[in-house]
Amino acid sequence: MKDTVFLTGATGFVGSEVLKQLLKENYRVKVLVRDKARLKEDSADIVPVEGDVLDPESFRKEMEDVHSVIHLVGIIREFPSQGITFEKLHFEATKNVVDAAVNNSVKRFIHMSANGARENAETDYHKTKYRAEEYVRNSGLTYTIFRPSLIYGPGDSFVNMLTDMIKKLPVFSYFGKGDYKMQPVSVYEVAEIFVKSIPVSTMYGKTYSVCGEKVYTYRELLNVIMDVINKKRLLVSVPETFVSAGIAAFGGFSWFPITKDQFIMLKEGNVCAGDEAFEETNVKKRNMKDLLKTYLS
């Protein structure tokens, strides 16, 4: 019988690709979804579990025959009035999934955190990601934690947003000098690493950063996008104080393009020191510009 993997976040940007990779590697997949109609894959090896990560009773029994759990649920922006917060979706959701895995003696737990997660972080995003990591580490489960950098691919919420804005605006602004560094990684690489790590015993009990092939400054990334879509735009620097003032006034509104936490994280940079996750799973790094050409136009 095929090993069964319990997957959270299966209808999301990363989860959809992880699900594809699990099916490719011949796993049977139980997918925790609030609405199974949102699933993008159709296979006899998919078992929809309609439930909610914030309601552990809705899925606890479904882990009884599970070999591994891949937990991907997370958000990049809070909407407190809707009950969507980092505390709930990063920490509480992780606690619920971990507790269910422990109660069902699950053999393997793969957890998605974020590059930059740390106890003394300046942002609530990174703080709650770190607290979730610590809960996983202290659970007694055979875990591996991955901390991806900025993830790009069809349907991502960052590169596609920049592309749409560049297409529409004759002038495009960036903050300060635009020299903050990032090392984007494709959703394909991330999904492969998650799935291929399941049987790799050398990865047990470890935490890995996952970054792409090349480090870019923000300005360099904008130029790459313009090259790919063949749109040249005037790039203009906006003082960071102006951006901070805009965030203070409008950052709580969903239509405003950036929040305080996102602005802080952008300025901090998002790069990795090593490639161990790629090396131990034998996953090859992709060229970002080549990949962008396959879906940006």
Question: What would you note in describing this structure?
Answer:
With about 300 residues, the chain is of the alpha/beta class. It has a domain at about 5-150 and about 185-210 and about 275-285: Rossmann fold (3-Layer(aba) Sandwich). About 35% of the residues lie in helices and about 20% in strands. The chain has a seven-stranded parallel β-sheet, sandwiched between helices. It has a two-stranded parallel sheet with strand order 7-10. Strands 8-13 form a two-stranded parallel ribbon.
Q: How is the secondary structure organized here?
A:
Layout: E1 4-8, H1 13-24, E2 28-33, E3 46-50, E4 68-71, H2 86-103, E5 108-112, H3 124-137, E6 143-148, E7 151-152, H4 159-168, E8 171-175, E9 181-182, E10 185-186, H5 187-196, E11 206-210, E12 216-217, H6 218-229, E13 234-238, H7 240-250, H8 260-268, H9 276-281, H10 288-295
Parallel strand pairs: 1-2, 1-4, 2-3, 4-5, 5-6, 6-11, 7-10, 8-13
Antiparallel strand pairs: 9-12
Q: Any descriptors?
A:
seven-stranded parallel sheet, 297 residues, Rossmann fold, globular, single chain, two-stranded parallel ribbon, 18% strand, 13 strands, 10 helices, alpha/beta
Give the terminus-to-terminus CA distance: 44 Å
The percent range for strand residues is: 15-25%
User: Residue share in helices?
Assistant: 25-40%
Q: Which stretches of 5+ consecutive residues score pLDDT under 50?
A: none
* Structure summary, number of beta strands: 13
- What is the helix tally? 10
